[in-house]
Predict the structure of CpaF family protein.
Amino acid sequence: MDFDFTLGSDPKGDFRQSDEFQDIKGVIHQRLVERIEDLSVDFASWPAHVTQRFVQQEVEDFVANHRAPLNMSDIQAIVKELTDELTGLGPLQELMDDDAVADILVNGYKEVFIEKNGLLQRSRVRFIDNRHLMRIIQRMIAPLGRRVDEGSPMVDARLPNGGRLNVIIPPVSLNGPVLSIRKFRAKPLQASDMLAYGTLNQEMLDFLAQATRMRCNILISGGTGSGKTSFLNMLAQFIPDGERVITIEDAAELQLLHEHVVRLESRPGGLENVAEVTPRDLLRNSLRMRPDRIIVGEVRGGEAVDMLQAMNTGHDGSMSTIHTNSPRECMHRLEMLLHFGGWQGSEFNLRRQIAGAVDLIVQLARLPSGARRVMSISEITGMQDDVVAMQELYRFDPGPNGRDGVFSRPCQPQSRKLAKLGQGIGRSAGD
């Protein structure tokens, strides 16, 4: 086969991003698959360097025999991609190996976006076609015991390394197969990392650490990508040794650095007559497991009723995240979730339940610059005029560029549970 592709066909001069380059790579890939079938090779038993050498030889022979318009740099790029294809996740492998990449978002075979350093950007990675993308998707979900096809076009699952994967395919998706991956940090962020990134200052950290030790019930609120799970991981480091911690999540993401943790994960129903296990089921069961603290990865449904009842009946020190954009909105959302969960009491008793259960709301946000900040720490002070009352103990005022800013401390804690935390912590909270 002779190729008649020219560099001039790509107006940007980026041959490796062009359809012509992808066509050549696709032909070489098909030839490699045929050679593997002929040889009956099991690459799983081969060392990585042997596999790479085999691919290198096959690609060079193919290019020489078919006069493909590839220079040595192009050949090396194809060798790497085809080696990843045989031993890993193809074009996604380099993104999965890059610790700076937090999210991988694939919108059909040509569009791959990543979040890096808090900012969304387009990647140079692409697939040959949608069939190629589907092969990689099937390779990712097969070990998880899940399937995706026209009859079941959506999958949400946890990867073996702890990351989270979501797939939606045609006809539901009009962009072709859409893949979203939330990667897992190999090493959870420490308190020192949060300080170095400017997420909060030392005084705020000392306050929250002491609040955690004193068994305050804490909700961590924020929007998508604001760092709620990472912040919850960090706070849990201050739970004293000797306490039994039970975590409940839809998809297990928490990495608590604690000696006694029991991790529970919900399970969707409908797969081969498998019964659904909801976070609410797990939360109710956890109360029979002698927990000292219950940590709900994210409260988003009827489990809010059981969580707040647990907080009000002897399980102080519990924590959860919630998807809201302000502390006041957090209260409104909790009320809504309690109604969804079948709350049978009056509005007044519902709000009194919230006021009696929650001690602190930590509000996080991701700024336009990509930086993540604790925007406020608010204390629930009780009921006032039939409304849950709160006051802001700390806040962050962003600077003009969205990155610089000042932390301040407007108020001292008022509630009896938190008043002691105001003692011995300096009033200055400036950067």
Q: What stands out?
A: The CA atoms of residues 109 and 127 lie 5 Å apart. The chain has three domains: 1-87, 88-184, 191-422.
